[in-house]
Design a protein that fits this description.
Elements (H helix, E strand, L loop, with lengths): L2 E5 L9 H15 L3 E7 L15 E5 L3 E6 L2 E6 L8 H26 L3 E6 L4 H12 L2 E6 L5 H5 L6 H17 L2 E4 L2 H9 L7 E3 L17 H5 L6 E8 L7 H8 L7 E8 L3 H10 L5 E4 L7 H6 L3 E5 L12 H7 L4 E4 L5 H9 L2 E4 L4 H13 L4 H15 L2 H16 L4
Parallel strand pairs: 1-2, 1-6, 2-5, 6-7, 7-8, 8-9, 10-11, 10-13, 11-12, 13-14, 14-15
Antiparallel strand pairs: 3-4, 4-5
Length: 419
């Protein structure tokens, strides 16, 4: 039985893609026969309100660390305040998490004789913690790249200080070079890392996945659409983080040319550093075709997508090789049409074209975006075929069962003795 230590900033009931992916992976590795221990934070990223962790709490370590045993998985949770939109506070608490996870990890690897340490990004510094623990306990560590940092912060204009950039790039290369294996979720990411001097045979492409049982196909008219009175509307929705990389202003500019069509509305669900300025921009533009809603519970996702005729996925052109938004898999699994604002050469665009599940328009092409929306509005009856094609593609390539098995095979190969 392999012993695996997972270090992840987020874990269910945090309501973010990485939390769902890592939790599902831990559950499946546990079913495959591995002994799983998780070091994570207390829920802080829009946690699902339907989950009460007090039901699982077994042991208490002061006010800073809690231990739970959930479905055979041992979970240590470190105190973490709710997600802040202030960058310096987020960085401070990332470092706090790293220090505490290192201290807990030292006790665990010495006691348990861990075989594998697995950690996803962000933050990038998770890789440093995993490397130090691997040195101490003799385990091998796998670095799971969900987003490439510091590239995302640099390319989106968030990080500009040359000294900080230089330091983080050195940290990034150290994390890659010290990892025994690196997993990436797109081929563009692999090319990015190879371009930085990382050997290609060290990098494994394992895409993200979706638990198809959670993404039910529901009626266009449902409790969510009734609640917000959008049954008779043509809805373009975006659900997720509202920050600089999402670049949602192009959507607003496209909406200006469509404001005379009363049936078309734009629904933004979520929160983030750019939400307030986005709302102000809508107001200054004199638009009344926008509906802003807060983050919703995860179990409402199928109803949200079903209520929407076009489901938006955004990716700045500067980030085309740095990330693949996981929401695209959920939209496809719910058999709904994808509208992507992304570089036409991105992995996201390639996925949509290959799956024939929707439309892609370049971020700077606001006129083209408005034309696509107008065409879809005038040809509503043709949209179902895109949704059906997307779900079929998910079932063939991105199911939870198939992808977690790939992780198991990688872990088995990594810990196998070399002759």
């Amino acid at each position: 039985m392999s012993k695996i230590l997972i270090i992840s900033l987020v874990y269910l009931p945090d309501n973010v893609s990485t939390a769902h992916i890592i939790t599902n992976l831990c559950e499946d590795l546990n079913k495959f026969g591995s002994k799983i221990t998780v070091i994570t934070s207390m829920p802080h990223y829009h946690p699902d309100p339907h989950v009460n962790l007090d039901n699982y709490k077994q042991r208490y370590f002061g006010n800073l660390i809690y231990r739970y045993d959930i479905s055979g998985i041992r979970v240590f949770r470190i105190f973490m305040p709710k997600k802040s939109n202030k960058i310096f506070l987020r960085i401070f608490f990332w470092l706090w998490f790293n220090i505490m996870s290192l201290l807990i990890g030292i006790l665990l690897v010495l006691k348990d004789k861990t075989d594998i340490i697995f950690t996803p990004s962000p933050p990038l510094t998770n890789g440093i913690v995993a490397w130090l623990l691997s040195l101490l306990g003799g385990a091998k560590y796998i670095y799971n790249v969900q987003e490439i940092y510091p590239d995302i912060a640099i390319n989106s204009g968030i990080l500009k200080n040359s000294l900080v950039i230089s330091i983080l790039k050195k940290v990034e290369l150290l994390v890659y070079k010290k990892a025994h294996k690196i997993t990436v979720i797109s081929n563009g990411m692999k090319n990015n890392l190879v371009g930085k001097g990382i050997k290609g045979d060290k990098i494994e492409y394992i895409p993200n996945f979706i638990d198809i049982s959670e993404m039910k196909i529901v009626s266009r008219i449902n409790s969510f659409s009734i609640k917000y009175s959008i049954n008779d509307k043509f809805v373009i929705s975006y659900a997720g983080n509202v920050s600089v990389p999402q670049n949602l202003r192009s959507l607003i500019n496209a909406a200006k040319t469509l404001k005379h069509i009363n049936e078309i509305i734009f629904m933004i669900i979520g929160d983030g550093t750019q939400l307030k300025s986005l709302k102000h921009y809508v107001e200054r533009s004199g638009l009344n075709n926008f509906l802003f809603l807060p983050f919703q519970a995860y179990d409402l996702v199928p109803e949200i997508y079903a209520s929407s005729d076009l489901n938006l996925v955004t990716l700045s052109s500067s980030l085309k090789d740095d990330a693949v938004p996981s929401k695209v898999y959920r939209i496809m699994a719910c058999s709904r049409t994808v509208l992507a604002i992304a570089s036409l050469s991105s992995d996201l665009a390639e996925l949509i074209r290959e799956a024939n599940c929707g439309f892609v328009v370049a971020p700077e092409d606001e006129i083209g975006l408005a034309k696509i929306i107008r065409w879809c509005y005038e040809n509503k009856e043709k949209l179902n075929s895109y949704g059906e094609s997307g779900r079929k593609y998910i079932l063939e390539h991105y199911t939870r069962e198939a992808i977690t098995q790939k992780y198991k095979s990688l872990i088995d190969l990594t810990i196998a003795p070399k002759w």
